[in-house]
Amino acid sequence: MSFVFHRDPGEAPPLAVRGEGPYVVDAAGRRYLDACGGAAVSCLGHSHAEVIEAVREQAGKLAFAYTGFFTSEPAEALAESLIRTAPAGLGRVFYTSGGSEACEAALKLARQYFLEIGQPKRHRFIARLQSYHGNTLGALGVGGNLFRRAPYEPLLAPAAHIAPCYAYRGKREGESLEAYGRRVADALEHKIFELGPDTVAGFIAEPVVGATLGAVPAVPGYFKRIREICDRHGVLLILDEVMCGMGRTGVRYACEEEGVVPDLLFVAKGLGAGYQPIGALLIHQKIAEAVRKGSGRFLHGHTYMAHATACAAALAVQRVIERDQLLGKVKRQGRMLIEALQARLGQHPHVGDIRGRGLFVGIEFVRDRESKEPFEPAATLHLAVKRAAMARGLLLYPMGGTLDGRRGDHVMLAPPFILEDAAIEEIAATTADAIDAALERP
Question: Which residues contact 81 (CB under 8 A, 6 or more apart)?
Fold first, then answer.
C-alpha cells in the first residue's frame, strides 16, 4: 500500500529505482528509454557522475543558507553563467525552486516595476490560448489552457488571451507564414487597445509552446512583431522558457532564434536537469534598476530560493553542456529525430503534424489528415499511446485538448542531449509501434 497521493490516485505507477544514462530502471528490472526527459527535464540523462559529485561536494560543505542572511558561491557562479550567455540587457537572476514559482515571480515583479516607475494602473496580463505557464494560482491564471483552469476558475486572477501562433491549424489557405505571423501578432495590439493601453503590464508567451500544444515554434517574424507592439505600448515582454529553454531547442535561450530580447525570462526544467529542483527568473537591467532606485527590494521570496546545493547542481549541468558542446549535438540529433519520425510516420493516416525544434518534438494525431478532424476526447488517444509506448519500454509525454483544452491529442519527445544515433531509430520505431497499437484498441 502506498501512502503517496499520486497524480492519478487510482493508479500506482511503477517504482523507479535507478537511472542509467538515457534509461530509467524500475524495481522489476524493466528499462525504459526516457524519450521525453520526464517532462523535458532530464537533459543530461540520469546518474551523470559529474553532476552527482557536484551535489555531493556542495552538500558536504554547505547544503543550505537562508537568503535572508547569506548568498553562496554556487548561486553567484550560476547567475554569472546565466547572464553571460543571456540576450543583451538581461542583467540579474532571481532563483526559485521550479517553473511555476518563476512565473509567479515574473508576474509580481512586472507589477512592482510599474509601481516603481509611477504607472500604478498597469496590472493586466495578456497571454495566449493553449498556453501553460505553471500550476500555481497566479501562473494558472495567465495560462490559457481551459481544461486545467476550469476547476479553479473562481480562484484565478483575471487575464486576457489571444490566439496562439499555431500555423498547422491557424494559417489560412494561400496565406504566407510571414503574413500569418503578422496577423496573429497584431491580435496583441487589438487586445491592448480593448483593455486600455495604460492598464496592461505584460504579455507572456512560450517561444516554442510545450505541453499544451506539443512543441510548436512560432513562424518567422512573429516575435519581432510582438516585441514592436510591446515597445509601442510600454508593455513588458515576458518569455516562458521553462520547457523550451536551457538548450532544449539547440540554443541556450530559445528567444535567440527569434531575434528578440525579453524584459523578463524564466527557466527551470533543463536548468538543473532534474538533479535538484531549481528555476530562475532573468531580469532586464532596466527593471532591476527601477527596483533598486525605488523601494529598494523585491517584495517576494521563498525559503528555498538560491538553494546552495540546487545551484551547484545546475552550475555543473550547464558547465557540462558548454564543455561538451551539446547544443550543437541537440541541433544535429534533433534533425535526425524528425527525419526518422517523418520516415516512419510522415504518411501515417492518423498523424497530422510532426513539428519542433532541436530535441523538442511534437506529434499531433488526427482522425482524418485532410480535414484535420481530431479524435473524440473520450478516446483519450494520447494516454493510450503513452501506455502502449511504456509497455514497450519507451517514455513519451502525452497531452490531450490540443485544439481547445478539450479536443485533440499529441505526444511530445524531449530526449536527453546525450542521445546517441542508435537510440534515435529506437525511439522512432517504438513510437510508431505504440501509435498503431493504441489505434487498434477495441
Answer: 315, 318, 319
Distance CA 238, CA 225 (A): 14
DSSP 34: E
Give CA separation, 429 vs 112, 436, 441, in Å.
Answer: 51, 11, 19
Q: How many helices, marked H, and strands, marked E, lie in the chain?
A: 14, 17
Orientation of helix 177-195 relative to helix 222-233, angle to 10°: 20
User: Tell me: the pLDDT tens digits for 202-222?
Assistant: 999 999 999 999 999 999 999
C-alpha cell at 377: 476526447
All cell numbers assigned to 409: 491529442
Q: 182-196: per-residue pLDDT in tens?
A: 999 999 999 999 999
Q: Closest Cα partner for 276 from 266, 284, 288, 268?
A: 268
How far apart, in Å, are the Cα atoms of 81 and each of 246, 248, 256, 435? 12, 17, 16, 41
Is 190 exposed, middle or buried (CB count within 10 Å of its CB: 0-12, 13-18, 19+)?
Answer: exposed
DSSP SS3 for 107: helix
CA 381/CA 136 separation, integer angstroms: 27
Does the model's pTM come out above 0.90?
yes
DSSP 215-231: SEEPPTTHHHHHHHHHH
Quote the crossing angle between the two packed helices 308-323 and 326-345, to the nearest 10°.
80
Beta carbons of 94 and 266 less than 8 angstroms apart = no
CA dihedral 159, 280, 243, 204 (to 10 degrees): 20
How does 146-183 read in b/e, with b if 16+ C-beta sit within 10 Å? Answer: bebbeeeeeeeeebbbbebbbbbbebeeeeeeeebbbb
Beta-carbon neighbour count of residue 394 at 10 Å? 22
Residue 441 has pLDDT above 80, yes or no: no
Q: Could you give the angle at the alpha carbon of 196 between the alpha carbons of 194 and 198, nearest 5°?
A: 155
Q: Which residue has the cell 502525452?
A: 398
**Average pLDDT of span 263-281:** 98
Q: Which three cell numbers stand for residue 315?
A: 552550475
DSSP strand pairing (264-267 vs 23-26): unpaired
Q: How far apart are CA 97 and CA 44, in angstroms?
A: 19
What burial letters (b/e) apply to 270-304, b meaning 16+ CB within 10 Å?
Answer: bbbbbbbbbbbbbbbeebbebbeeeeeebebeeeb
Give the Cα separation of 229 and 233 in Å (integer): 6
b/e burial code for range 83-93 (CB count within 10 A of at least 16 → b): beebbeebbbb
